[in-house]
Amino acid sequence: MDCSICFEAYDDGSRVPKQLSCGHSLCARCATACADSESRLRCPQCQKVTLAPENTFTTNYELLNFLMMSKANQQKKRVTFVRQEANESTDLLRTSLKLVKGIDQQH
């Protein structure tokens, strides 16, 4: 999922999702940058104003946890895919070696 202002993916660093009073989220960097001098921020989606004294926007932990779990699942899928590819390559190599040994034994 991406911030609706900068369109960068949320992360657990400077792009951590911050929840506005309307329920929408922005990344921390954009929330801080877009707040006015009185710590008010107008939601880019619904236009509701959020007040956050000293830019203390609440972290959207539910969204952050969902994103981190989703990222972990994608990494597991990649590891599984790489293992499958390695197993298939190993099987192909073994078959090729058997064929080469068979040809050498015939000569």
From TrEMBL:
<feature type="domain" description="RING-type">
    <location>
        <begin position="3"/>
        <end position="47"/>
    </location>
</feature>
<dbReference type="InterPro" id="IPR052667">
    <property type="entry name" value="E3_ubiquitin-ligase_RING"/>
</dbReference>
<dbReference type="Pfam" id="PF14634">
    <property type="entry name" value="zf-RING_5"/>
</dbReference>
<keyword id="KW-0862">Zinc</keyword>
<protein>
    <submittedName>
        <fullName>RING-type domain-containing protein</fullName>
    </submittedName>
</protein>
<keyword id="KW-0863">Zinc-finger</keyword>
<dbReference type="InterPro" id="IPR001841">
    <property type="entry name" value="Znf_RING"/>
</dbReference>
<dbReference type="InterPro" id="IPR013083">
    <property type="entry name" value="Znf_RING/FYVE/PHD"/>
</dbReference>
<keyword id="KW-0479">Metal-binding</keyword>
<dbReference type="GO" id="GO:0008270">
    <property type="term" value="F:zinc ion binding"/>
</dbReference>
<dbReference type="InterPro" id="IPR017907">
    <property type="entry name" value="Znf_RING_CS"/>
</dbReference>
